[in-house]
Amino acid sequence: MDKKKLYRAFKAIGEPTRLKIVKMLAQGSFCVCELSEYLDMLQPRISQHLKILKDEGLVRENRESYWVYYSLDKEAFHRLWHDFMAYLDTDLKTLGEFEEVVKRMENKVCNQRIRDTKIKKMQNKLSGEQN
Asked: Average of pLDDT values for 48-74?
């Protein structure tokens, strides 16, 4: 599992215009001129977004004579989701970037203070509802 690849892929699809393009490509293959017309955007802008999605391996291009059609690589999205779920299931203790986080989580004094604060808030809320 490559965390950098996960980050780049989610960053690519996290931009609103690219997410629209992904949704459109989930419906079928389109050329840039069609996407431009349907999304009411200039062709160079669509092309830039498609390049980012293609560079991340999420979109395929298929040349048919003069035209280039773009389609969603659904298998790439399945792999992305699989890798993301594997990342979520990974024990924090095995991920080096979480070393300090794990230490803080294991700090029972800190955790007890947080629990006490939450209990007080809940008690205050309940006593406010009874009045």
From this structure: 95
